[in-house]
Design goal:
75% helix
Amino acid sequence: MAGNRARFEEALNRGHSHSWDQKWQEAIKEFEVAIEEIANEPAPYAGLGMAYLELNKLQEALENYKLAARFSRGDVIYLRQVADVQERLGQYGEAGKTYMAIGEIELNRRRLTEAMDNWNRAVRLEPDLLRAHQRLASIYERQGSVHNAIREYLAIARILNAQGEAENALQACQLALKLDPRNAEVLTAIEQIRSGEKLAGESDSPTYQSSDSISEVAQHMAAALQEKEGSSNGKVTDAASPVQDARRLASEKLAEDLFGDGDTELNAQTLQLTTLISKALDFQTRNMTNEAISAYEEAMGLGLDNLAAHFNLGLLYQDKLRFEDAVREFELSVQDHDFRLASHFSLGECHRARGRIEKALEHFINVLKIVDLATVQHSQADRLIELYENLADSLMAQGERDQASAFANALVEFLSHKGWEDKAKDARGRLDAISDSGMMILGDMLTAGSEQVLESLYLSQEYAKRGMYDTAVEETYRAIQLSNDYLPAHIQLGELLGKQGRRETAAQKFITVADTYRNRGDVNGSIISYEKAVEMMPLDLSARGRLIDMLKQHGQIDRALEHYQAVGDAYYQLAQVDKARDTYQEALKLAPRGADEQNWKVRFLRLMAEIDMQRFDWRRALIAYKELRVLDPNDERTAITLVDLYYKVGQPINAVGELDNYLKQLVRSGRGAKVVGILEDMVRQRPSDKNLVDRLSRLYLQQKRQAEAIELLDKLGEAQLEANETQAAYQTIEKILALNPPNAASYRQLLAQLRP
């Protein structure tokens, strides 16, 4: 009877959530609940396999991964996990057989390169897997990969000879000899078999090295670029397409120089150079390499300094395995835009042939960067270049030599077939479709770990667009299982968790990704990820603090100040006003380094001053507003507040002085109409301030508003009398009488009463 699908899905999701939080025991319980509901689904067994693997319970992990593979009807993802755990347990023979089976599945799917990769893994673990060697030998021969085919035929011969089948072993050697009649290793093997000696073991012969992290997708890219050739031998071309194109262009340029009308004065040397170049091109066309080299060298000895000629000579040196000479020529031709791509590629090949993998990788990265720059918008160029620099650093890091070598293999294959430019554009479109969380580069195609990683991320995006977030998350987990170190997959998972409303979990994911980017030296990647984390959890002040530190260290001052303000605002929302003010104060120290148009200093001074005003800390607020008055002299609110603060701290003289300065400023700037209103507001607040009343009454009189001036002075006098300020009241009444008020007698009578 079928179980409850809803309970199954809920338990499965909880299990994945616990796995993400590395709560392995809780994850195991949830996956077991899922199995109780539906026992024939692969996902919970795969989850159990991962959990037991993390707990180092390898046998339990193996059993569950086997069940996942069984119920998925042989899904290669789970079979790979089976093989991986078998290998960890030291069950190399069983692991080899599992990889052999995976290879057969991939072959049935017509994924030849994936099949070959798995067969190579199989023979690495179990060197005596005859069927795998036979498969590889046959395919390598059809592909024209002579060296690899010979290696596999010799392995077959070794296995058969060890089994006492000398005649069959000799037949395997004969197949190898047809590919290279002068191969010393094959000839030696034939002699050993005929003399009854054992053949050299696998450890004595070249072994296949596969990077677990990138070989599958590398080979798939190569296969995807292959075009069906009309020839039946299936051999690949002898040089990458950019190199062939550049070689044709170099020959055309030399021919143009040779047969063009030319303004060069004809003399004996010029005629001799022309003859030598003509011979060199002719020899090169007829594959007479030694003769072509001699002609180019003689021409250069006579003074020829042509980058096209240097490029051609470099290729000829490379054909003759004179790699140091080739490097010298390519380092000249790389200066020419027309030969830049091909020269970098050829330099990579030459350095690699000399065992200088780091130097080779530097040139190969330049090749891919040049190709990729042609596929992106100009605004993306700086970030793309930075990503390639980070990729180079990562691949050349200690302990990553195999990965670097595999990357170089992938790139060589990528450029080894016609149509690579169109394929690069197609790849860019696919990458852009799954790069909502950050820019991706063609290098990601080579480092994702498996083509299925990118397929899963693409599917995840499609599910998310349809609102199917649970399925999208599941697909992203699938990508992460395939390549745990592939950060774009983790970023996409964080985005999906945020869309599900699991913002705290998403923030933690982005923080982990940011820390990883920082450890890898990718500053921008780290900053972008930290910003995503604080976007998810704006009040996570710890993450925002790390982000601010990184922004300051790398000169991104305006972005740092934006986050300072956000931190201060967050503290304010949490009612931690002291911390908010301290944050604004710290930001104020950095503000002078920000962009002038952002007015950071004014912003933070205002924020600090507002806090001080709310806390009735008039003296601290006064300090801020005095500086604000200098920084923003036209701001009316600042000017009036500063006057008010002077009054609040008991400095009325400074208050009036500041007010006078501002009123004069208004008049000079043509805004004198505002003066009356400002003074009236000030008097309403402080009707007993004789300085304010005096200024407003004089202004009224200037405007012939005598009645209002008298009324204003009258109120002042009353206030002074109430305050027992007799002398001041006496002076105010005298001012009123000087204005000939209608009721002057009353004022005279009052004045007489006040007279001492």
